[in-house]
Design goal:
Layout (H helix, E strand, L loop, with lengths): L24 H10 L6 E6 L2 E6 L5 E5 L2 E6 L2 E5 L3 H7 L5 E5 L2 E4 L3 E5 L6 E5 L4 E4 L4 H8 L2
Antiparallel strand pairs: 1-2, 3-4, 3-7, 4-5, 6-7, 8-9, 9-10
Length: 146
């Protein structure tokens, strides 16, 4: 893919033009990213009140006992969306699914421990830990380039 940026003092509104020989998945994904108006926050509930959670501050999102929770450095919040709905809102370059019940923020990962046979231990910036399920190990390795 070639990217070209042209500045023009007479241009008052940004315009993006895509030249391609065919409309494929890559083009559709690019259009989706450019036109994404999804909110950059989630409503997190705790102690009979709710707070707007900045997506960049979320360490991980997980499902437990039929409920979905988001963890930030400020604590754990209950969410009213399903895990797959939250996954659709999260930026794919920052968040990755590590199991059927958990999505993590790669920017909040301190380290990955590959010494466990068949799985990966993830240590977060808040020193908490989680484990990549065997089903998702190859996907994580692909994302990490290992």
């Amino acid at each position: 893919m070639q990217i070209e940026i042209i500045t023009d003092a007479l241009c008052k509104q940004m315009r993006v033009v895509i030249y391609t020989d065919e409309v494929n998945d890559e083009v559709n994904e690019l259009v989706k990213r450019l036109s994404d108006d999804a909110p950059k926050v989630l409503a997190g509930f705790r102690d009979n009140s709710f707070e707007l959670l900045d997506l960049s501050e979320i360490i991980r999102v997980f499902a437990s006992s039929g409920k979905v929770f988001a963890v930030t450095r400020d604590g754990e919040y209950s969410l009213r969306l399903r895990l797959y709905e939250i996954g659709e809102r999260l930026k794919k370059s920052d968040f990755v699914r590590i199991s059927n019940s958990e999505i993590i923020n790669l920017r909040k990962v301190k380290s990955f421990d590959l010494s466990f046979t068949g799985t990966i231990c993830v240590t977060f910036s808040d020193s908490s830990k989680s484990y990549v399920s065997r089903r998702y190990v190859s996907e994580i390795k692909k994302v990490l380039g290992i």
